[in-house]
Design goal:
- Helix 1 (20-31) runs parallel beside helix 2, helix 1 (20-31) crosses helix 8 and helix 20 packs across helix 25.
- The strands form three sheets. A ten-stranded antiparallel β-sheet has the order 9-11-12-13-10-15-18-17-16-14.
- The chain contains 25 helices and 23 strands.
- It is 32% helix and 23% strand.
- With 740 residues, it is α/β, with parallel strands linked by helices.
Length: 740
């Protein structure tokens, strides 16, 4: 046997060591030089009877291997007597392995009070009594190893084992707390959940399986966890048949409504899918992680909302959608908004014929890709944005604003980023303003859109009603230009081929459900028409001069009706306009304005943004300065005595500050057994290391960083917070010069 893991001079107490797992543990520790207390009451699997034979035999086996052992026949409920045996014979205790157990399996309905009490007494109380007796000895000497034995029944539950499951899960809770309390005293505590052949399993598992789950497959982990060189503590392990694994808690990210908001069962039901969604799960390591989530809930002030519009979720959310288009899409869109209807009008040819040297997108096409993305997200019952929980059956397009911020290419891929800009309560209805930025493949912003949507029946949360609608009023004089244009009877069917699939514009039955005699023209189709009118009358049909347009949809248009657009020039290239339907005399576009450039702008490609860390002080800069500071202040270790693990995100990396070992150090990597673990976004590292402890506490309670382990010891980070911030900037400059 390899002697790399020796226990010479160590005193190990093992309960239930007369058979099965306990015997296997005892023999291995004894063979490795440990002095072993072999405890076993000698009772049956159900707790009855008593015999010394089993324990005596194990002691003899250990001595035959050249080891030293002493027997103890006390019940684990008299744990102090077991530990006293170790003191009387060997003078101390270094390791406690809580292994003793019995079964009283019966369904909960048939379980007696004695069945319940006996199982908890042996498993939970017994583990407590033995460990509690050894604990002061380990604290005094500053060293100890404790193993608790739980079960899959305790972790997951099991039919007919309510008593056993409760006791075993209680053991795990006890172990977790002792791991925290013992860490600073050199006492490491771990828990195993073994599956092995024993008196407790031979009655419930088939013989052919028992031969494959020998106790000898469990002991190696116990031996390792109890060794001087192992620094693991607070772990839970499932193992058996040569399989070894670590188990951890997992929880969903959940949902925070805001502690200032009244939450009803209906609200919980509405958010249930998010509450139980493990796709982006987190793994809390301490009760502090729970407090962090609760603190966020306390500090978060709810914006309100209802089942249709959750303002907290919607304002916090963003969504990104990518779309592609080509020359065919541009020509189809132009036809869909009336371009090319007059074959004698050559001014429309650059918008509908790709063979024209001047072929270019209509400026209003900038609304089409994000609009199609909105429709696509809602088409199958999805949300356009998290928190906006309504579908086509509730929405009407109220207003539209489009601004051209860069040249639209003839073809390419665009990335659209959605966010909620505003939401207004027009009780009983609501209005939402969705802001969408579109960028080309080089990251250059080419267009910005605002979609203002009227949402039927979605108001009533008590929010603001929004600004007045008395804007962009036509002057009291004759218009400077008027364009009259008749739409086709199939215009809606033609326009929808560009991607706006709302059935309101194609399906007669759907239109009737909305109160219309027949399908109506898309608001954005009308929008494309009036954009063309402004472009032609005020910009000489030169799309380079078109800057922006904003309209309010006042009335529906039916395919085949005639649009009349009246336009008034104002100073600074501003154009006020309105559009009506000639046949009905109805104003369909009002409070509308466009901006026209005096000359074609020269757009500059936006340079690609460098990663955040490269733009400023990097994590390597920070820890190189800290390492130099520690090297020049060797007194920090004695004064601080604390180690810190930093877990950075976006992208992930690990760094440490060790003010506990040797002369201290800092650098990249993981530090086993660190006293304090701090998790934060990489972009916040420099800010944290140049802040005060109160400022860091504010970040913690604000949810910007997580602190686990010995949270109180995080205050000792002050030892390096005193570093002159100028040193970090100097390190950044040196790095920049070296890589230039």
């Amino acid at each position: 046997m390899s002697d790399s893991l020796r226990y010479d001079g160590k005193v190990v107490v093992i309960t239930g060591a007369g058979n099965g797992l306990g015997r296997s543990h005892a023999l291995d520790f004894g063979a490795r030089g440990a002095k072993v207390v072999v405890n076993d009451l000698g009772g049956g699997a159900r707790g009855g009877g008593q015999s010394s034979a089993a324990a005596d035999k194990v002691v003899e086996e250990i001595k035959a291997l050249g080891g030293d052992a002493v027997v103890n026949y006390d019940s684990v409920e008299d744990g102090d007597k077991i530990v006293q045996t170790a003191l009387d014979r060997f003078g101390t205790v270094d390791v406690v392995v809580n292994n003793a157990g019995i079964l009283r399996d019966v369904s909960f309905q048939k379980m007696s009070l004695d069945d319940w009490k006996l199982i908890l007494s042996v498993h939970l109380n017994g583990s407590f009594r033995v460990t509690h007796a050894a604990w002061p000895i380990m604290r005094e000497k500053g060293y100890g190893r404790v193993i608790f034995t739980t079960s899959g029944a305790g972790i997951y539950g099991n039919f007919g084992q309510a008593n056993y499951s409760a006791a075993k899960l209680g053991i795990y809770g006890l172990a977790n707390t002792l791991a925290i309390e013992g860490r600073s005293k050199g006492i490491l505590v771990n828990t195993i959940a073994p599956i092995a052949a024993s008196r407790l399993t031979e009655a419930v598992l088939p013989p052919e399986l028992l031969g494959s789950i020998k106790p000898e497959f469990i002991t190696p982990l116990v031996t390792w966890l109890c060794h001087d060189s192992c620094r693991e503590t607070g772990g839970l392990y499932e193992l058996g048949a040569s399989y070894f694994s670590k188990v951890r808690w997992e929880r969903t990210r959940g949902h925070i409504f805001g502690a200032d908001r009244t939450v009803k069962a209906e609200d919980v039901a509405a958010k249930w899918n998010k509450i139980v969604d493990f796709e982006d799960a987190e793994h809390p390591a301490s009760v502090n992680d729970t407090f962090g989530a609760i603190t966020q809930a306390i500090n978060r002030k709810s914006l309100g909302g209802n089942e249709f519009i959750d303002l907290d979720a919607a304002f916090a959310a963003t969504a990104t959608v990518t779309s592609q288009y080509d020359e065919r899409d541009l020509a189809l869109y132009a036809l869909g908004v009336g371009a090319g209807a007059d074959p004698l009008d050559a001014s429309d040819l650059p918008f509908v014929y790709e063979g024209d040297d001047r072929f270019t997108p209509l400026p209003s096409y900038a609304v089409m890709p994000p609009s199609s993305a909105v429709v696509a997200r809602m088409k199958d019952g999805g949300n356009v944005l998290l928190g906006l929980n309504y579908g086509f059956d509730r929405v009407l397009h109220g207003e539209q604003y489009t601004e051209i911020r860069g040249p639209l290419p003839r073809s390419g891929k665009l990335t659209h980023t959605f966010r909620l800009k505003a939401a207004y309560d027009k009780k009983p209805h609501a209005v939402t303003v969705l802001a969408i930025t579109s960028c080309d493949e080089q990251g250059n912003e080419v267009a910005y859109n605002e979609f203002t949507t009227f949402v039927r029946g979605a108001g009533g949360w008590g929010g603001e009603r929004g600004p007045s609608g008395d804007i962009n009023q036509p002057p009291a004089r004759a218009p400077d230009a008027v364009i009259e244009e008749k739409t086709r009877s199939d215009q809606a069917l033609l326009y929808r081929l560009s991607g706006d699939w709302n059935p309101l514009h194609a399906d007669p039955s759907f239109a009737k459900a909305f109160g219309y005699d027949k399908p109506i023209l898309h608001g954005l189709c009308t929008y494309g028409y009036v954009s063309r009118h402004v472009l032609k009358a005020m910009a000489g049909n030169d799309p380079r001069l078109f800057k922006s347009i904003k309209v309010r949809f006042a009335e529906t248009v039916f395919p085949g009706e005639t649009l009349v657009t009246k336009m008034w020039k104002e100073d600074g290239g501003r154009v006020i306009f309105e559009t009506s339907v000639k046949e009905r005399g109805k104003l369909v576009i009002r409070n509308a304005a466009a901006e026209i450039h005096g000359e074609a702008p020269q757009y500059r490609a936006r340079p690609q943004a460098a990663p955040a860390e490269e733009q400023g002080v990097s994590s390597a800069d920070v820890f190189s300065v800290i390492a130099a500071h520690i090297a020049s202040h060797p007194d920090l270790v004695a004064a601080t005595g604390t180690s810190f693990q930093f877990r950075l995100k976006n992208p992930a990396s690990a760094w440490y500050i060790d003010l506990k070992s040797g002369n201290g150090s800092a650098g990249e990597g993981s530090l086993d057994g660190a006293d304090v673990s701090i998790e934060l976004d990489r972009a916040l590292l420099h800010q944290v290391m140049t802040s005060s402890i109160p400022d860091i506490q504010k970040m913690y309670f604000g949810g910007k960083l997580k602190i686990s382990g010995n949270v109180a010891a995080s205050n000792k980070l002050a030892a390096v917070l005193s570093i002159d911030p100028a040193l970090y900037e100097a390190a950044r400059r040196r790095r920049a010069e070296a890589t230039a």
